[in-house]
Amino acid sequence: MKKIIVMEKLSHTQIEKFIEFGYVKIENAFSRDIADSCRSILWETIQMDPDKPETWTQPVVWVGELGHEPFVKAVNTTLLTNAYRQLAGDNWLPRMTMGSFPIRFPSNDISNDTGWHVDASFPGDSPDNYLDWKININSRGRALLMLFLFSNVSEQDAPTRIKEGSHLDVAKLIASRGEEGLAFMQLAENLDKIPERKEVTATGNAGTVYLCHPFLVHAAQQHRGKTPRFMAQPPLLSKNDFNIDQPDEMACPIEKAIMRGIKRSNTATSKH
């Protein structure tokens, strides 16, 4: 019988790709049994029937934070906690819940949440309004955007769209705003100013996790398949603002990516 070798840490190549492209795909980050258990809990939570498509009446149903044991296990596997440490250093907080869950269903209707954006990470002028939440150059409040697949996700099953390398462009875009940063909608309305980037999709089998830089531009899309897509997109929260004013060799990969984006901006500016 062929022995399956389970990776316990990210490779040097994976970390370099994270810095350059803004994400790393980790297959088998948690077991299929855990994925099945999580999916069962979510079906019960939304009170729909997996065997009765007539009950799937909306293109997307959102579920908030859940702290059931399978979700806690999924987000805290040895592989993932090692990866958090490799990407963020010690600047991250353990998660004891999972959320939020945009559960997408096959539908001819298009939901109103499919625009390109960067997830905000700290409250703005109106803390109760997420559209006023902000993103700043030190990524206050957030270490990673994480995409957890609890069902198999093909190209037809509304995989999250990702613009490779766009986190570097966002760093340039918000650098001049310093600690104040930009509000969610302010940044979203300025994303047409960044260069065109290759678009990829977050496909994979249940148990796959995408760890993404907090500045990565991404978007949802319509479900054109037959099987509902179950996914969570929780943030990995940070303890402190990230430090981009330090020697490169002292920085974690999240910081290195921001510094690389700003450096490219400065280099481009100096040529004109």
Short description, anyone?
This protein has seven helices and twelve strands. By secondary structure, it is an alpha+beta fold.
Keywords:
single chain; 272 residues; alpha+beta; Jelly Rolls; five-stranded antiparallel beta sheet; three-stranded antiparallel beta sheet; 7 helices; 28% helix; globular; disordered C terminus
Describe the structure.
The chain is α+β, with helices and mostly antiparallel strands and 272 residues long. The chain has a single domain, classed as Jelly Rolls (Sandwich), CATH 2.60.120. It is 28% helix and 15% strand. The protein is built from seven helices and twelve strands. Helix 1 crosses helix 7. The longest helix is centred in the C-terminal third of the chain and has 18 residues.
Blueprint (SSEs and pairs):
Layout: H1 12-21, E1 23-26, H2 32-46, E2 60-63, H3 69-75, H4 78-88, E3 101-104, E4 134-135, E5 142-149, E6 161-163, H5 166-175, E7 182-183, H6 184-188, E8 199-201, E9 209-212, E10 218-219, E11 231-232, E12 235-237, H7 253-270
Antiparallel strand pairs: 1-9, 2-3, 4-7, 5-9, 5-11, 5-12, 6-8, 6-10
Helix pairs in contact: 1-7, 2-3, 5-7
